[in-house]
Specification:
Strand order of the largest sheet: 1-2
Order of helices and strands: EEHHHHHHHHHHH
Radius of gyration: 19 Å
Number of helices: 11
Helix content: over 70%
Structural class: mainly alpha
Strand content: under 5%
């Protein structure tokens, strides 16, 4: 992903005759602005939608999984690939995309400006969370459609899938904001992309890992999300341990953000 162009928010335009609009209207306006920004950004679309679709098609239609030593058992390659790509989609939108976009908003002074408007910090975060959830829903719809075309089948735990997606989105968004608010924008750009690659290849986000390494990554955000998603999509159940790990990482991220996040670029 590249340096995004600085933009102004639409939330400040939502006013009434008596002054600031209700909090809900401000958050919805910011949510709509965030969604438009994501969908109009070519780099974010590449990482969030195009790359996951390419990865799903490649893993489902070639013997790559077998070559990597993945134990498919009685499962089809497309089913295993779908579980991993759904997790990857969340990491792309909630972490990589938001970390980079927020870091450059911070650099250009947009975050400091928003903090002084009626939208406030909580409204900004709520708008981002709702917007990313909407984008993730779009991603899931497109990925699921492609998976069905490629022959995916199996009993998906709908509640488990929804809970995993919501908790995973919140967890990665929190840590994306922590990164964006604590280090320089250029460093965030490089580090967020590097972490995306590492999470997809070694971090258990795309594929499960066995042995000691698999045990280690299961306690990391990427591994926990991958495990929970695989449980919901492949076995039709809930991985309570993985969900608990994600909840803890989310809380730790919130505490870290409250303590160290800065609206001013260093």
């Amino acid at each position: 992903m590249t340096d995004p162009t600085p933009q102004t928010t639409a939330s400040a335009r939502v006013t009434t005759a008596s002054g600031a609009a209700p909090a809900g209207s401000r958050v919805l306006a910011q949510t709509a602005f965030e969604i438009r920004t994501i969908l109009r950004n070519g780099e974010q679309l590449l990482v969030s939608i195009i790359l996951p679709a390419i990865i799903l098609f490649g893993l489902a239609t070639t013997p790559i999984l077998e070559a990597l030593g993945v134990d498919l058992g009685s499962r089809r390659p497309v089913d295993v690939a779908t579980a991993g790509v759904l997790s990857l989609a969340i990491g792309s939108s909630a972490f990589t995309g938001q970390a980079i976009a927020t870091a450059f908003d911070r650099r250009y002074g947009v975050l400091r400006q928003l903090a002084t408007t009626p939208l406030g910090v909580r409204g900004l975060i709520a708008g981002k969370l709702i917007a990313v959830c909407c984008v993730v829903a779009i991603q899931f719809t497109l990925i699921a459609g492609l998976a069905l075309v490629l022959g995916a089948s199996g009993g998906v735990h709908i509640a488990g899938l929804a809970l995993t997606a919501l908790l995973g989105t919140a967890m990665f968004l929190v840590w994306g904001l922590v990164m964006a608010g604590t280090i320089r924008a250029e460093a965030t750009l490089a580090l967020a992309n590097l972490l995306w690659v590492l999470m997809a290849s070694l971090g258990g986000l795309l594929l499960a890992h066995s042995g000691t390494w698999g045990a280690i990554v299961s306690w990391l955000p990427s591994g926990a999300l991958g495990d929970a998603m695989r449980a919901a999509v492949l076995t039709g159940g809930l991985d309570a341990t993985a969900l608990a790990v994600m909840a803890v990482w989310t809380l730790v991220g919130i505490v870290t953000g409250v303590r160290f996040f800065s609206f001013d670029a260093k």
